[in-house]
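Sequence only, no structure available. Ideas?
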Amino acid sequence: MRLSAIVILAAAAGMLAAAGCKHRNQGAGGSTSATGDGARVMTPPERPMTTPDEAAAVRKQWTGRDATIITGMVTAVLPERRWAQVGNVPMDQFTGPGGQPVVFVDGGGNSIASGRVVRVEGNELIVEYTADPTPPRVGDVMVRFRR
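Reply:
I predicted one. Tokens follow.
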């Protein structure tokens, strides 16, 4: 990973912490199941869907903080490939082959995943994400910090 990407992701984490992100009550903490070889697998707790009003508020909060921040909305997710399709984003800010690092946040402003733009297609981006602990879902917000 390039140093600039690490710096950008570290800045994103710091901004989230500084903003005093509110964590939602996610219940008892998921469930556990056993695999065929007896190993236990922990399933993360289900998080609430991001509503359009929450997404709009999160986008306004981020762009109001820094005019160079770019936000978009997750419009589709392909879990088998760990791809999220992102729309409602200024496409002129994404040129070339991709590779720009991004962060996904939920309706409460909580960071849920990070990723890299892998394709720019028409009016939407394709982002390969890391799902730790949960993948982005339709309605979540993508945040990109300019270099």
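Confidence is low (pLDDT under 50) at residues 1-29.
Hope that gets you unstuck.
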